[in-house]
Every structure is written in structure tokens, then in C-alpha cells.
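PROTOCOL LOG
Step 1. Enter all chains and additional molecules of the complex.
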Amino acid sequence: MRIGDAKQSYEADEAIWTSSTQKLWLGFFLLILMVFPFAVDSYLLYLGCLVGIAVISTTGLNILTGFTGLISLGQAGFMGVGAYTVAWLSINTGLPFPITLVLAGLMAAAVGILVGLPSLRVKGLYLAIATLAASVFLHFIFAEWEPVTGGMGGLSLEPAHLFGLTFQSDFMMYFIIVPLAVLMVLAARNVFRTRIGRAFIAIRDRDISAEILGINLLRYKLMSFALSSFYAGVAGGLFAYFYRVVTPESFPLSMSIFYLAAVIVGGMGNLLGGILGAAFMTLVPEALKLLTAALTPFYPNAPVFMSPMLEIIFGGLIVGFLIFEPHGLAEIWHRIRRFFRLWPFRN
Amino acid sequence: MSILEISNLSLSFGGVKALQDVSFRVPENTITTIIGPNGAGKTSLFNCISGFYKPQQGNIRYQGQPLPGSIKPPRRAALGLARTFQNIALFRGMTVLDNIKLGAHVHMKSGLLSALAYFGPARREETAVRQEVEERIIDFLEIDHIRRQPVASLPYGLQKRVELARALAMKPQVLMLDEPVAGMNREEKEDMARFILDIREEWGITVLMVEHDMGMVMDISDHIAVLNFGQVITEGVPADVQNNPEVIKAYLGNSDIDSLRRKLNPEGEVA
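Step 2. Run joint prediction.
Step 3. Record the structure below.
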């Protein structure tokens, strides 16, 4: 139970983690992330990497859609730009992964700025359609610009490398993906402690009063697009290193919808929500498959019944969340925290 | 010396003439009030000054400089024009503290990279803004008990006060208040009137307001302009304005001057 906090300076009061209990839990969580790859089998490790990539991309989309209020269906396209940039750079220049990933992010950010240009004039669903058009256009480029993208066959690339180290296995990739995910989420959290993050939220909540306060709408909307696509580009670059093959079909439209769903299920405008949403969307389909496998010894027909049901159950879960927890998974977490704040007393 | 000079301003939407040849001035370091019946063009005038509407004719001079339509609202905010809205325009999802900090946006400089790292300039700047907001504004407006609450959960009167706090964080030269006490109870109105007077006296900010509450308008204004059907009927000190027959006619539309005069002049009573 926490009774209160006595801060001596404004700086201490502005910190992200203000109590020692929070810091303890955070340290515990980071320790688990560190031990995880040593303790689990290859399947869980593979899932861990996928969740890490999804967390980065979802956090990016959350900045744009959750915090700035600009609905985008282009996330998969921006990830594709990042993935192709990494693939092309590692085939043609052999640069080490930190440089290719940053360049992938910057490339995606540049494309994001272009796609974001209509956002000054169109909002809501109209903007979603504009970004949809952009993602179709990007898909077309991936498929047709053969000298660079390898056309429908796509590109195969060498594993990521740095200082003579090659990151070939999932185990090695985990140590790129997860620290990067942690860092990028932390950076996003930092943005929302400053004027820039506040400006994003101001644009989402009431753009006219944002203008009155001296916030240049176009500038900040484009900044949000750039930041969001940077995250998508890095996630796409990691995706390329992880699968080591990039084709136009790696980034279908359904992937954009996947990330939008992750943001909504997790909690729009809540970074923790983005993380939980990404984990939920990645893990639940897998968990349902495991459930099927576990049922097979008792009901030999389970795979026959379950496999067509998986998508329906998954969809049903999402709809259920929207109805019963419209603020997303993050709200459940907050409720648990509130409960324990005064525990064992009732509040 | 006038800080704001409106001359021959005309604005129309299709056939509706919202403002016709409006001229008046806002003397520096005064509380200047625009009054007039509903639909007289008061809010349209505010929107012209803050740059949302482009008047078809006439011009606005601010601190002696022309303020053409090419200067957009964000730029006007940086020049020192702040305003509040008739129907509160706060960011409902944010806390009181974040709403007020947003007012300081134009005076902050840190860029995206230092924001991502929250290191160096961004950190120093955020801490300095927090201190200033706490010690100058939150203290002054007596809203320290609600600083962590989301705005949406606050009662109306407090929301109005938070909106005023946000405008003050912009460190304006001219503060435009669109109906600051509308819908408030008597106690809240008295608080707000006191804050407005203090803002003029202690902060040296010129206040330009639109208000319907005649008691308060006559009490605290130094200068009043009366608008009707998009035209300025008269301007002057409160005593002259409230006895002007044109004003009485505009407000009440009949000739029973004495009863109307009593309504316009509620003998110093607020509310």
C-alpha cells in the first residue's frame, strides 16, 4: 500500500516512475525479458521476437492514431518500405544492422510525410481511405519496381551483422529486437512528456484550440506521420532480418488492419495499451492453436472443428473487448493497479 | 495608446452581413468589453482578430502593426494574442496541468530528438515550464487541488478557470475572453471578476471580452463598445454607454426607457 509521495522538486514529480515499488516491478520485468530466451524453447522464442516487432509497429501507429487522432491504414506499407530498404542496403552495401535500421526508419518516415500531406485537409475515415490508397500504391511499387525490389519474387538477404557478429538464429535476433522495442517505447513515452507529445494530443482532442495556442497543425501532423512511420520502418527492417526474405505479399493490407486492431484492443492513446494490444493480437491466435492441440487427445476431431473456428473465436474476442472494455486492455491494468494502491483496504 | 485598433472591418457570409464597417479601439492595459444582443457579431469579431475569419474589408492593427489575413492563428498566438472560447475548448482527455502547459507551447523550443531522449534542453525546458505554471498560474487561479484531474471530470466553473489558466500560460499581451462568466453561479462570477481585474492590474495584460452579464460588465470594464446587427452603435466608459438611448433601444427594442434603464443598471450588483 502506498500512502503518498513527498516530492522535493518539480523534476522528481515529472519522472515517469515515481515510486520505488514501480521501479522494483520494472526491474523485475526487464530481468524476465533478459532471462526469457535462455529459459524457453524455440517456438516461444520465435513468438517473443514476433511480439517485439509488433510492439514497435503498434507503438508507432498508436502515436499517429491513438495520440494524434489520424486514422491510418498504411502501417503495413510503411513497414514494407523499411523492410525493402534494409534488404536492398544489406544486399548492395553490406552495411551493419544499426545503420540499415536507422536508414529504413528514415526512408519510411520520408514516405510517411508524403502520405501525411493530405491530412491537413481530410480527417477521420477520409484520411483512412487516403492512406489506404497510399498502401495500395506502395504495394504496386514493391511488386513492379523489379530492379530494386525484385518484383513478385522479392529479395533474400544475409543475416544482420555487426562487428563480425552475425545474428542468424532467433536467439540472436531476440537480443536486437527486444532491447530495441524497449528503447523505442521509452522514447515514445518521453515524447509525451514534452511539448511535442502534448501538441499531438491537442490536435486529436480539438484542433481549433490547438491552433489558437500556436500549434501549427500541418507541421505537427506531418511530424506525427514521420515519427509513426519511422517506428514502422524500423519494425519492417527487423521483420526483414528476422525472416530474411521480403516479398510484396509480406505486407498485405490485412496487416495494417491487424495493427489498427492492436491499437484499439490495447487502448488508443495509451502506450501500455499498444504493448498489450500487440501481444494480444500476436499471441491469442497461437494460444487458440495450442488449445486445439491440447484438446486433440480427448476429442480426436478437435482440429477439424476448431481450425475453421479459430478466426471466428479471435474475431469474437476482439468484438467482446470493444463492447466490454472500450478503453482497451490498458484499462484493465489500471483497474488492477487502483485496486492494489490501497490494498488491503478498500477504496 | 491603443494596443488593438479595428478599422472599417466588414465580414459577410453569403448574404449575411456579420460585420459592417466596424471600427473601435482597445486602449492598452484596460478591460474593454464588447456587448450587444445575440447575433450582433461579437464572436465573429473575435474570430477575425484571432485569424479564423478573413474580413472582406478593413484592417486590424495590433501594437501599431497591421495584422493581415496572411498571419494565421498559430502565428497570432506567438505575437501575444490569446483567447478563450464561449463553449469551453479544453482538451478533455488531458489533465489540468497538461492543458495549462499547452498554453506555454509557443514559448518552448525543444525539438523532436531531444524530446525522444528527454535529455538536455527538453528536460530543462519542461521543468522550467512546470515551475512557472505551478508558481505563477495554478497558485494565482487557486486550482492546485485539481491539477492532476482530467478536465472532463471537472464542473463547468472550474473548466472555465482552467481555460483562463491555459490562456495566461501563453503570456499574452491581449487576452480575449468570450463570455467568461456565462452559466456561472454568483460566487463563481465574483471569483472570475476578481481574477480578470487582477490580470489587468498585476500582470499588466489588456483584456478584451465579450460578455452578457451587465452587472459584471458595468462593474469591471474601463471601456465598452456596443455592437448591434454587425455595427458599432457607440463606445465609451460604462456610465455613458448605459445611458445611451441607442443602446437601450438595441437591447430592448421598445421605448419604455426607464424600466429598461433599470435593467441595464442593476446598481452595482453582480449577477
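Step 4. Note key features.
The first helix of chain A runs from residue 10 to 13.
Strands of chain A lie at 155-156, 160-162, 165-167, 245-246.
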